[in-house]
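Input record, target 12 of the design panel.
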């Protein structure tokens, strides 16, 4: 069931972005990991819209999310105009797999390659890693249009000043002052800088990418060209990657019935050949969590403990996740008999 939050305060971060401090109403307080997000449920013009926004605060602090205006984005426009202090909003429990666990015994390079509001899931991770993994080197490559458009610029500058293991590299396509050169982060510059800044064994390096689709595609292709292992590249998406270079593969599925465990209840769920597990659950009024419905955000992730599920799109689960049986119900289809899926292992 959705949770309820009350807006305690609102801070204008830039002309296009605000940070909302929230308090939970009623139920036990939620917990989260740095890098996770809340999925807000909006009612706009009689329709339900779900959008995910990163939590920018650390566990133990007041829960905060930052929303930046998205061009032609109905949800962000609605939130920035209509959400007010004291108002209550509905959201799903914190979710997301764009989370980097601190290591105590290894020295490594951690590269955050970020553009625009992609900084929102990164800021709390930076703050945790700087304390919990001080032996490693953290590199933030941060692209924006100008200084005025840049989220958390003062906070990041202060973090860099107080933590020498953090280096921030600013990229502005149209800087407002002469303090910063005009430059864009492209594949050539990215490759050169990664090689130059690497301090420890390249095989230990981790790359966390968040930003617009074309930016993340550029960064990922560059890293793969540099022979970085796929499992060392993590990406965060909130919206389906609608820009694809070629038509998707045609899939043909059959009707199956799956066993679904959710909130302590077991369901026998018929899934037609032309619908995903999530869509079948929604048709039977089982309120599974979801957001993007495009295989990119992991809000709908569950574990398949028996049988086989095939996903038409997976932009978030790693090879390790797949080996552990994790699936995305929003793009998942049962392809064998006796499929068992559980949400009761978070």
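The sequence produced for target 12 reads:
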């Amino acid at each position: 069931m959705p949770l309820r939050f009350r807006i305690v305060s609102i801070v204008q971060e830039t002309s296009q972005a605000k940070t909302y401090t929230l308090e939970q109403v009623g139920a036990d307080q939620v917990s989260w990991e740095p890098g996770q997000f809340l999925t807000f449920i909006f009612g706009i013009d009689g329709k339900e819209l779900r959008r995910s926004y990163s939590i920018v605060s650390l566990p133990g602090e007041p829960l905060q999310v930052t929303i930046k205006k998205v061009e032609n984005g109905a949800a962000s426009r609605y939130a920035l105009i209509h959400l007010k202090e004291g108002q209550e909003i509905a959201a799903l429990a914190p979710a997301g797999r764009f989370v980097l666990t601190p290591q105590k015994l290894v020295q490594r390079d951690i590269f955050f390659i970020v553009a625009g509001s992609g900084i929102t899931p990164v800021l709390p991770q930076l703050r945790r890693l700087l304390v919990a993994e001080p032996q490693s080197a953290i590199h933030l490559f941060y692209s924006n249009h100008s200084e005025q458009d840049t989220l958390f610029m003062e906070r990041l500058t202060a973090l860099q000043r107080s933590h020498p293991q953090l280096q921030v590299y600013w990229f502005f396509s149209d800087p407002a002052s002469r303090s910063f050169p005009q430059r864009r982060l492209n594949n050539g510059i990215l490759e050169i800088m990664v090689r130059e800044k690497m301090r420890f064994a390249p095989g230990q390096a981790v790359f966390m990418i968040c930003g617009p689709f074309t930016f993340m595609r550029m960064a990922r292709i560059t890293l793969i060209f540099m022979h970085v292992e796929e499992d060392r590249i993590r990406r965060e998406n909130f919206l389906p990657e609608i820009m694809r270079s070629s038509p998707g593969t045609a899939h043909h599925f059959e009707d199956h019935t799956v066993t679904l465990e959710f909130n302590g209840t077991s369901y026998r769920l018929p899934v037609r050949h032309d619908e995903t597990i999530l869509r079948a659950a929604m048709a039977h009024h089982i309120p599974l969590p979801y957001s993007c419905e495009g295989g990119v955000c992991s809000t709908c992730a569950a574990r398949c403990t028996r049988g086989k599920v095939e996903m038409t799109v997976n932009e978030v689960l790693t090879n390790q996740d797949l080996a552990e049986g994790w699936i995305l119900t929003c793009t998942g289809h049962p392809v064998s008999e006796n499929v068992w899926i559980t949400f009761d292992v978070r």
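The longest strand covers residues 3-14.
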